[in-house]
Design brief:
two-stranded antiparallel ribbon; about 120 residues; 4 helices; mainly alpha; about 40% helix
Length: about 120
């Protein structure tokens, strides 16, 4: 992570060095993560709780990364019914498009070539 120091004055460089040294000391003197985890687990247990009760994660030592919810697969996702095709490829009548979702490649190519989507209406 290179930092451009050429434009900094002596005062700014001293301030940057001081800040960096303070951060380095803070990092080097703090307890290791495993030791902190053990202290937290002991504290929680001493007070009659479990990590699961407090945070809802199965294992505090290695919390699982939550996966992004797939909206399409969620139970609350809006279900759309089938729709009749609205557009047809003049070169291949078997290729149709309802007008929903991403434009098919055949139509995108024809539109980019200067045609209008209304030219392909069924």
């Amino acid at each position: 992570m290179p930092i451009d120091l050429t434009g900094l004055s002596v005062k700014e460089l001293r301030s940057l060095i001081s800040t960096a040294e303070k951060q380095q000391t803070k990092i080097l003197t703090r307890p290791k993560a495993a030791a902190m985890r053990a202290k937290i687990n002991k504290y929680v247990k001493d007070h009659g709780y479990t990590i699961e009760e407090l945070y809802g994660v199965p294992n505090a030592a290695a919390p699982s990364k939550s996966k992004k919810t797939n909206v399409r697969n969620s139970p609350s996702a809006r279900k759309l019914g089938k729709v009749a095709p609205k557009y047809r490829n003049p070169a291949n009548p078997n290729e149709t498009w309802t007008g929903r979702g991403r434009q098919p490649k055949w139509m995108a190519a024809l539109v980019q070539a200067g045609k209008s989507p209304t030219d392909f209406l069924i």
